[in-house]
Amino acid sequence: MPPLAGKELRIVGFLCNWCSYGGADTAGVGRFSQPTDLRIIRVPCSGRIDPLFILRTFMNGADGVLVSGCHPRDCHYSEGNLYARRRLEILQRLMPFIGIEPERFSYTWVSASEGQRWQKVVGTFTDEIHAIGPAKPFGVSMEQLEKQMAGVLASPENAGAEKQEVERAAS
Amino acid sequence: MPHLDELKSAIKERLPELDFVIGWGRGFDPIHATPLFMRTEADVDKLEWGPLNVHNTATYLPSLRGKKVGVVVKGCDSRSVVQLMQENLIDREDLVIFGMPCTGVVDLTKIKNAVGDLGMVRDVQISGDTITVTAGGKEHALALADVLNNKCTVCQYHNAVLSDVFVGEPIEPSVPEDQVYADILEFEEQTPAERMAFWESQMNRCIRCYACRNACPMCVCRDHCVAQSRDPNWLSQRHDVGEKMMFQLIHAMHLAGRCTECGECERACPVDIPLVRLKKKINKEIKELFDYQAGIDPEATPPLLAFKVEEQNIREREW
Ligand code: SF4
Ligand code: SF4
Ligand code: SF4
């Protein structure tokens, strides 16, 4: 069994302050159940998202990244998301080229009133990441990784380490 | 080179109105050409043209802004000139562009692989389709086609896309346009794990010398490059594969829609990392998405500095 089976994965969401962050909030207020793997980073506009944020996030060990902004034509700054769409599309097509599975990155549009849509987006995306499992960090071979993980889980301080891991993940 | 003399007299004619003209001359040995800065007619006589003219002469232009310069270009170099103009990094009126049809330049790594040590070259003769390199006491006759730079084997722009003086007969593209990205499609047949393993093994050799960046005609940030900035701190000093790859991704993304595939990054790399492959991939997507190629039209806007409200070719995901 893979060492992280059943655990949370690290998924990072870049959400626009004006729409999708509100949408996620709406989903929360409406008490729609959501997976808890997503760590949200609030940005002023999807146009603020440098594609390098996403690449850096993957290089730092994320298993998935989701970007969500205002629907086209609805941008608070009128055209930020239209520039973002071009950049994000290029990035999405580049990522598989360096070996990051295409499922791990997605971008979409969710407005502040679309709590239900947010629930669906985050649920679908998280399920897809779980289906392919944790990402292999760049520059670490699969064998090295399994050895490391096995080492952590088998050590006497295992319980403590695991607790720490859970706390770290929850923070 | 039948037209070289014609080119030289054209340069001499314009020289009085210019600070200097950039071209190529013989380097420290017969195989390494070197950029040549021609100020006098005697300098112009040293101009060479041929498969050893590997450098992109456009690389110097942004730092020479304010001077009146002439520049001798191959087709690919001329695309860099156009791209620099498009981004308002050089001034058209201060520039005189000299072009000749280019039949291709060599990849010195390929020659090195064929002859062994490039430090021992005594003589180079080029005649027809053959380049004969005398190195280590031996003569190696190599077919030019075998040691040509990859970019030349699929070149679509042998003739300068923009020039004030053009000498010689224009040449047709090397291959049909739809074959330019065949190597990218082939690489993409591998699984993601194989592709990552490929880049890991390549990046493993990187020594973070940044020669790739310094040689790139479109890398114009100079001291403000994010690779060295501490605020924001995009890259640590760690020497691991992830940081090295991250730098290449920064370079590739900063060149998205601007890279003219001149190959200088790859040529400058001391450890032969196939850097153009990453950039070609992005160019292929830009061509598909926006029907756009960098360095063709001085009036065009790079696609990532523009948008359409309805994008014809972007199919977003349905949730
Ligand atoms: S890419 Fe074309 S123009 Fe450039 S060196 Fe090769 S053949 Fe010449
Ligand atoms: S990234 Fe490489 S191929 Fe592209 S313009 Fe720069 S040096 Fe030329
Ligand atoms: S030139 Fe090659 S070795 Fe130097 S930083 Fe670039 S990729 Fe690394």
Automatic annotation (TrEMBL), chain A:
One of its GO terms (molecular function) is metal ion binding. The keyword Transport does not apply. The keyword Oxidoreductase applies. Pfam families: FlpD (PF02662). Residues 11-133 form the F420-non-reducing hydrogenase iron-sulfur subunit D domain. Keywords: Iron, Iron-sulfur, Metal-binding, Oxidoreductase. This is Hydrogenase iron-sulfur subunit. It comes from Oceanidesulfovibrio marinus.
TrEMBL record, chain B:
Residues 250-279 form the 4Fe-4S ferredoxin-type domain. SUPFAM superfamilies: alpha-helical ferredoxin (SSF46548). PROSITE patterns: 4FE4S_FER_1 (PS00198), 4FE4S_FER_2 (PS51379). Keywords: Iron, Iron-sulfur, Metal-binding. GO terms for molecular function: iron-sulfur cluster binding; metal ion binding. This is 4Fe-4S dicluster domain-containing protein. It comes from Oceanidesulfovibrio marinus.
